[in-house]
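Researcher: Before we compare anything, I want clean individual predictions. No alignment, no superposition, just each chain on its own. First chain goes here; please echo the sequence and then give the structure tokens.
Model: Echoing the first chain and its structure:
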Amino acid sequence: MKKIFILIVAVAVFSCTNDKKENSQTVTSTSSAASGDAEKDTAAGTGSSTVTDKNSAAAADPKQNLVGQWKEHWGIGVETNVNYNDLYKITVDNGGKISINCINKKKYKIDQVLFDGHEISFRKQNKSYPLGRFYVYYKLKLHDDLRWMEGPITNSKKQKDYVKWGKVTDKN
């Protein structure tokens, strides 16, 4: 009996402290009672609680954090011979498939896109490369602020570099 009482007190304390957080989470409680707002307001009432993030669309599908336009920056912390900044558009279709397109250059084909919620990897082919197929393999980690991604790239010639992508806009 003491263990149950301690558990109820712990849940009540946790629920009360969870309600005090500002702008980070909203706590919604549902009750099994047909009516009774008093029971909905009590922390130890019977029912279930659901924690919903303010950015519920992005929280529901982390792929939505990628949607928008991104500007690529080369040679972060290392020397590079790349002196341009491409602009990319990332979209997610209704089936959840991620597409990446280079806005300012149509010569790239991007495929093999994988995203685990924190890191995106893909292959970019330069279709205009005169000596056959030339690929660049990306592995970018999404920052906690959801405004930057960065990581290593390796090309078909086994040359390595480091890139950083900054989010320009959240819109398609």
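Researcher: Okay. Second chain, same rules.
Model: Second chain and its structure:
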Amino acid sequence: MIQVEQALEAPSIAPSVITRRLAAIAFADVAGFSRLMALQDVETVLRWRTLRTEIMEPHMVRHGGRIAEIAGDAVLVEFPSVVNAVRWAADVQQAQSQRTLEGSSPLHLRIAVNVDDVIDEDGILQGDGVNIASRIHQAAEPGQIVVTAAVRDYVMNRLPLTFHDLGTPPLKNINRMVRVYTVKWNEGARGDPVAQPYLQWAARPTIAVLPFRTVSGTDDETYYGEGITDEIITGLSRNKSLYVIARNSTWRYRDRDKDLRQIASELDVRYVLDGSVQRQGTRLRINAELIDIVGNISIWAQRYEGSTDDLFEFQDRIAGSILSSIEPRVRAVETARLGDRPTDSLDAYHCVLRAMSLLYTFTLENYREAGELLERAVTLDPSYAQAYAYLGWWLNFWIGEGWSKDPDADKARALLVSQRAIELDREDPFALAVAGHILSFFGRNPEDALDLFEEALALNQNSAFAWGLSALTLAYLGRPDEALERLQNVWRLNPFDPLNFYFWIVAGIAEFVAGRYSEAIGWLRKSRRANPRFIACLRMLAASLAASGDEAGARAIVQELLAIEPSFRVSTFISWYPLRRPDDLSRLAEGLLAAGVSE
């Protein structure tokens, strides 16, 4: 998540990225879906959703796939290898066949797999490779899998399969002959997908924190490792977006007589946090690593060093840093793999994911599209709390960067949707923090905003996002030293956040409010080096330089500011900027005027 006061703008408008590459793709649809809809539309939609969420998507995650497109009853999935694609198809058909035998689902899938050259435009796949997969599936009977000859050649010696040649059926709008085969898994063969155990993931990401191992095995090291492990488990358990295995269940693995994959399977988790403790005299070294067992990758690792002289402070600092690092990385993996879906509408979910990716490109065109996607998400699912929260966050960017054509109406809309988000989910720290910031920034109600920040931190005290936004509100209120104290929490919890440039701006605002202009300039220059076209930084830097007596430097910054926003005027800006104390606003206005901004 991006922590910013207003929208960001990139140095230039980046065109869509178009690449050509080889891809393994699977196309699936429900046989006779239109007929089923005509007979029982609601039941059919519910069964199709259950099939996707309980069978297709868990197996997709297992085999490393991603949904490239979904429309009605048709799904296009991309996989990292042809073997993975075929295994996914076999697993899905077998699982659905079992449900049909049990009488719990009358739906029958047709699945086609192809490997071919595709055109990738910002993650959207096009070209003959995709078209062939969507055409050859028509040769499949309900419950069958069909593949192209290219797929057959890839997997015939790698998987226990039997192929039946269907010849070269005519394919609409495909100007070449494509040989097609049906696929049948050899029952009882080694590697049978039904016989292979795999993890069934909960709706929330599941994580186990294993007891931190000791390098030398001494009692002191064991004590330190146990303390840190307990702190991490306790902290993670407060985060309602994660499902954390209790200490009593993980403690039996302290001797590590099993590998991590087996431990994860027994605990039924996807993520494992592993670590070690080493002591040399009064020095302690802690190594921690977060592993995605399904993806078989390390998604985060960090080393910490400290002293036993202040053990509790060191233990709290390490636990806090690990806690703040785990949640965003798990969320990133879950988002990428469609594993954390706070809505029943897959279309709405995809709208939010796409909007999030566009927000962070910092271009006007992409921001406009992101807004349209978020508006569509809340239309598709009016109960989707996170969609409302992100829409409020988007409006914050849109207005602050000067892109809004009707700022007053958009401010009212931002207040409305951010409040709606917390009405729908009062236990989402992100939604609470967004609502607090919008209430402070646009609603000019910083006192109530602070209550919302405290509520967010009560739910997740390791939320750097909530600490940082609450620091900004304190700066607005003329309480700069308290703001700077809160920013220390941000940097302690998340020292390597690539978006820390925003919190450097918050520090600059706090120092400006305190009248410490040289310190403000230091923070703001640091932020400008990271993001040279962020207007919130440039206007505060210009005012700080002018207030410090460096009018030449201030005027140079104003030239950069006006090149980005030519219509920027002091009177308009001061009329809405939420500094509470009149003296702070006056000094800000005087600095901008001295820097050469028109009144």
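Researcher: What stands out in the second chain?
Model: Residues 480-599 form a domain with the Serine Threonine Protein Phosphatase 5, Tetratricopeptide repeat fold (CATH 1.25.40.10). Additionally, The chain has a mean pLDDT of 81.
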